[in-house]
Amino acid sequence: MSEQHLTSILQEERVFPPSADFAAAARIGSAEAYQALCDEASADPEAFWARLAREKLDWFTPFETTLKWEPPFAEWFVEGRINAAYNCLDRHLSTSRKNKAAIIWEGEPGETRIYTYQTLHHEVCRFANVLKKLGVGTGDRVALYLPMIPELAIAMLACARIGATHSIIFGGFSAEAMRDRIDDAQAKLVVTATGGWRRGQVIPLKQMVDEAIDGLACVKEVVVVERTPNAVQMEPGRDHWWHDIIDSVSADCPAEPLPAEHPLYILYTSGTTGKPKGVVHSTAGYLLGATYTSELVFDLKDTDTYWCTADIGWVTGHSYVIYGILANGATTVMYEGAPNFPNPDRFWQIIDRYKVNIFYTAPTAIRAFIKWGEKWPLRHDLSSLRLLGTVGEPINPEAWIWYHTLIGKKRCPIVDTWWQTETGAMMIAPVPGVTPTKPGTATRPLPGIDVAVVDKDGQPVAKGQGGYLVVRQPWPSMLRTVYGDPTRYEQQYWSRYPGIYFTGDGARQDADGYFWIMGRVDDVLNISGHRLGTMEVESALVSHPAVAEAAVVGRPDEIRGGGHCGLCDPRR
Ligand code: AMP
Q1: With contact defined as beta carbons under 8 Å apart, do 77 and 312 qualify?
Q2: Cis peptide before 17, with omega less than 30 degrees from 0?
Q3: How far is CA 340 from CA 372, 373, 442, 463, in A?
Q4: Which atom of ligand 1 is nearest to the CA of 442?
Q5: Per-residue pLDDT reduced to its tens digit, 522-552
């Protein structure tokens, strides 16, 4: 890609303001309220974040210093002590949310499980005690390789409760990719399942864990959820059935008051070299970002049933299936399987059945629905929906209009949200009661977020001109480092423009100040809304005995977007 100019070819003139009805009921529904928030944030960003941190989160010990910034290393809410699981669960138990559904889960075969805040709390405390019993303590790493079942949410919150750092590995990753991640994090314990359901087939997760940890000295214990009927081998002394061991512990497990900067999780993301980067997120800053943006961008209210279709194995699932949504005391829907099982109307059926109000998915899924045909959504009552969202890649205008018309029935604002694993939370997105949207742009940065498009020397480019997307000020949910490799953290994100975060994306701003993302400018492909490094794909190819050399280049794909390269997500 040319260093000097990035040329943008997309021109989109249509503008969709929120309806008067939506604006009237929205948390932020007037230009004045929105402007007041923007003014507060730009006048004194630290004071703005400090106010939000005090209002939106519950603390065991209050913080005094909002930000300690020694570029590129940030510490937020320095002296504070906090617990993410406490904020997602315990604080709701003394309110009317106690018996409200926290998680509504549907398995691919069709069964349903509903956890209230109280029952979820109970299960999380029990699993936290299981972790303790198996020797896991504050600061240890726990790897989770699970399908989209409630035990995944329970395990992650149990880790958060005792201060163990979780590293969730997407169930579609191979045993080899899993091994690299477990080894890099030096995880002590792995939680998995016998298998997961995908389009009626069993994905043999436990078997892959056995392969991945073979000879890995760090892993001492494995906990296995019995999800599918396939036989698995249980290694005596190392492997434990979830259903057995959970019965041997009490449900009494107070949340650990952890330092604000305690690493809540590591999530691996692709880089330009073969080795994945372990993005490290903090407890307080991350939780604030996820909580604040969930409320603001989804206009989340207590009466909402909210559904994000992302797998928890990706950052979207961390922030917007679990942490940000439960911290707000909302109801989150979780679905285990494929969107087209047994038929391509599964998503619309779920929306109809649970009367989902807010629906968040990826452009790649929308394009698949377009291909499958409008008869599928037309079979279902989607009138409960009031807000739609997208994430993962730029949404092409055709998909946007289809989503707006067929799913949103021209009533629902669409929030196109730009963010990354590294940013922890949404950065550029509309505030739905206020911001007029245009198909294909995530619109403006959220209050408190300072992004810009710059040239190769770091100078802002003129409106309409392409350049590199950067973030000029630290923000609470920013990644803190690359696990075990602070040098890589500095080089990857902060070396191009010292003191300024480089996103790796190209972008341009239009005359209204809206940001149009033009894709990655590094050696990374965006496939089905997920980043994969070309090097990683190449190393997967050459690991086959018949392949001596491999070179991977992106080519556009109608469904999977920008960089499809002949590979597909094994879970789709
Ligand atoms: P990941 O952290 O793996 O989820 O990938 C983040 C990358 O996905 C970003 O750097 C963008 O290239 C792309 N991306 C995510 N959301 C959007 C969006 N709403 N519009 C355009 N690109 C996006």
Answers
A1: no
A2: no
A3: 9, 12, 28, 42
A4: 19
A5: 767 777 777 676 666 766 776 677 876 667 7
pLDDT at 87 over 70: yes
Count of other CB atoms within 10 angstroms of residue 199:
14
Q: What residue has token string 């899924």?
A: 365
- Is the CB of residue 282 less than 8 Å from the CB of residue 309? no
Cα distances from 423 to residues 113, 160, 294, 356, 479, in angstroms, run: 32, 19, 14, 27, 6
CA angle 103, 185, 313 (to 5 degrees): 30
**410: confidence class by pLDDT, cuts 50, 70, 90:** very high
Task: Kindly give the pairing relationship between strand 387-391 and strand 239-241.
Answer: unpaired
294 Cα to the center of ligand 1, angstroms? 17
Query: Average model confidence (pLDDT) for the chain?
Result: 93
Ligand 1 proximal residues by C-beta, below 6 Å: 269, 315, 391-394, 416-418, 420-421, 442, 503-505, 517, 520, 526, 530-531
Chain centroid to Cα 567, Å, comes to: 22
The atom number, within ligand 1, closest to the CA of 417 reads 19
- Tell how far the Cα of 306 is from the centroid of ligand 1, in angstroms: 21
Residue among 323, 399, 363 at smallest CA distance from 153: 323
- Which protein residue's CA is at the shortest distance from atom 6 of ligand 1? 420
pTM of the model: 0.93
The Cα 170–Cα 570 span in angstroms is 11
Structure tokens at 219: 């892993």
Alpha carbon nearest to ligand 1 atom 19, residue:
418
Q: Tell me, in angstroms, the distance from the centre of ligand 1 to residue 544's CA.
A: 30
pLDDT digits over 97-139, tens only?
999 999 999 999 999 999 999 999 999 999 999 999 999 999 9
Q: How many residues can be counted in the chain?
A: 572
Q: How far apart are CA 290 and CA 462, in angstroms?
A: 32
Q: Using one digit for the tens of pLDDT, what is the confidence trace for 167-225? A: 999 998 999 999 999 999 999 999 999 999 999 999 999 999 999 999 999 999 999 99
The tokens describing 281, both together, are: 């997120």
Q: How far is the CA of 503 from the centre of ligand 1 (A)?
A: 10
**191 near 146, Cβ under 8 Å?**
yes
Query: Which domains, from first to last, does the chain contain?
Result: 20-46+82-449+476-495 (3.40.50.12780), 524-570 (3.30.300.30)
Q: Which of 508, 502, 486, 565 is nearest to 533 (CA)?
A: 565
> Does residue 29 have a pLDDT over 90?
yes
> How do residues 152-163 score in pLDDT, each as one tens digit?
999 999 999 999
